[in-house]
Amino acid sequence: MTEHAPRPDRPVEPYSPVARAFHWVTAAIVAVQVSIGLAMTYRGKTLNIWDEATNELYSTHKLVGFALLWLVLARIGYRLVHGAPPPEPTLEPWQRLGSLVVHNSLYVLLVLMPILGWLGISLFPALELFGWFSLPALTSPDNALAEQVLWVHRTLAFVLLALVIGHASMALFHYFVRGDNVLWRMLTSVGRR
């Protein structure tokens, strides 16, 4: 039995096309990063295979992570300048608070994760990408500290993954069960009603 949300008292305001593009490009890059991160650590750490394929995975992960950092900073800048539409009008106050906590946590992790990765490879040091060029170092090498920073980076990756799964699950719940515009506002400029 579906529990449809009550009709809102005010019109539903969608996210802008630029905000929607930032959201979906970020989501796609995070999905790629998680997949590459799992594959590279499985090959390198678990199987202890350090061949060209493993090196390519690590280089790709570093380059995409570096690009993701700048994309997320641009996304945050856009949001600070342009704001966001008001919350879906049918949400309860506790749902709005939960949404705010999850969204802010995602933003923090999406900035912190690439910085920790960059710091970790600076400390290691492993800044070279594909044998073509190197990222700039953030600090001088320190292998012991590198292991700690990269451990935090890996641990937070699982926290980020859990938040992303929870975020997506709630969006689908709102779309299929409640029948409101929570997900719809991020899909199109026209609401469901």
Question: How does this structure look, described?
Answer:
The chain is mainly alpha-helical and 193 residues long. The protein has one domain: Up-down Bundle (Fumarate Reductase Cytochrome B subunit). The chain is 68% helix and 2% strand. The protein is built from 5 helices and 2 strands. It has a two-stranded antiparallel sheet with strand order 1-2. Helix 1 packs antiparallel against helix 2 and helix 3 packs antiparallel against helix 4. The mean pLDDT is 92.
Q: Layout of SSEs?
A:
Elements: H1 17-46, H2 52-82, H3 93-123, E1 128-129, E2 133-134, H4 143-178, H5 184-187
Antiparallel strand pairs: 1-2
Helix pairs in contact: 1-2, 2-3, 3-4
- Give the strand order of the largest sheet, numbering strands 1, 2, ... along the chain: 1-2
**How much β-strand is present in the residues?**
under 5%
Tell me about the biggest sheet? 2 strands, antiparallel
**CATH architecture assignment name:** Up-down Bundle
Task: Give the overall shape.
Answer: elongated
What is the overall number of helices? 5
**What's the CATH class label?**
Mainly Alpha
Gyration radius (Cα, Å) is 20 Å
